[in-house]
Amino acid sequence: MSHSFEIGPVQVGTGRLFLIAGPCVIESETHARKMADAIQRIASDLKIPYIFKASYDKANRTSVKSFRGPGIAEGTRILGQVARDTGLPVLTDVHEPSHCEIAAEAVDVLQIPAFLCRQTDLLVAAGKTGRAVNIKKGQFVAPWDMTHPVEKVRSTGNERVFLTERGASFGYNTLVVDFRSLPVMRQQAPVVFDGTHSVQQPSAAGGVSGGQPEFIPLLARAAVAAGVDGLFLEVHDDPANAKSDGANALRLDLLKSLLERLLAIHGAAGGS
C-alpha cells in the first residue's frame, strides 16, 4: 500500500504518474537551466508533474579521473537558482551525512545513491532534514529487504520517503530488472522506475560505465504497465558529449514521444 505525500505541486503515491528528469551531473549553470527549461516545457505540455534532477557531485564515478561536478557549495547554489527561476521541485544526490542539511536548504528531495542505500547515518541524516527522501535500491539488495532503509528514514518522523528501482546485478557489468520488485516495494512506499540506470553497463567501457539506451523505452513501458508511481530518466541534449553517464542517457529529442506513450499505457492500466 503506497503512502501518499506531496513534494511541492507533485503528488506522490496518489495514482498520478510523475516525472523526475534531468542531466546526471551539473555540467554548468547554463546547461542545467537549459535542461530544466526544456524538460519543463515538455512536461507542462503533457500535464505530467515534474521534478528536476541533477547532481552537484558524483562521488561514485568508476575512475578517479572522471568528472564529478561543481561540488556542494557551487552545486547547491545552482540548484537553488534553478528552483527559484523555474518554480520546479528539485532533487539531488547526497553522499555524506554532513551534506544533508546543506543540500536540504536548496532542494526538495534528497536522493540516496544505490551503493549507499544501507548507510544508516546517511539515511537518518536525510530523514532529519524533513525533505522528501528518494532511496535508490541497491543493485545488491532484494526488493523485500528495502523495508529496512525505509524504516531508517521513517525513524526520524519523516514519512515522505519513496523507492527507486534501477536494476539488479546480473553477472559482471550487467544489470537486469525484476519487475516483481515493483509491487513488492510498493507495499513499503511509493515506487519510481529508473529507466536509464537500468540499462547501464557498470564500469564496462574502459574506466566509465557503458549502456544500452535503445532499451530505455522498452523497460519504461513495461514498468508503467506493471504499475509505478513515477518515472526517473536521465536526459541530455547531447549524450555523446555528456560529462557523466551519457552512455545510458535518454536524448532530449526522444523524451516527449516516450512520455506520450507512457501516459497512454498508464491510463490503459488504470492510472489517473
TrEMBL record:
Gene3D superfamilies: Aldolase class I (3.20.20.70). The keyword Cytoplasm applies. It catalyses: D-arabinose 5-phosphate + phosphoenolpyruvate + H2O = 3-deoxy-alpha-D-manno-2-octulosonate-8-phosphate + phosphate. It is found in: Cytoplasm. Residues 12-258 form the DAHP synthetase I/KDSA domain. Its main location: cytoplasm. Its EC number is 2.5.1.55. One of its GO terms (cellular component) is cytoplasm. One of its GO terms (biological process) is keto-3-deoxy-D-manno-octulosonic acid biosynthetic process. One of its GO terms (molecular function) is 3-deoxy-8-phosphooctulonate synthase activity. Keywords: Cytoplasm, Lipopolysaccharide biosynthesis, Transferase. Pfam families: DAHP_synth_1. HAMAP family: KDO8P_synth (MF_00056). Belongs to the KdsA family. This is 2-dehydro-3-deoxyphosphooctonate aldolase. It comes from Occallatibacter riparius. The lineage of its organism: Bacteria, Pseudomonadati, Acidobacteriota, Terriglobia, Terriglobales.
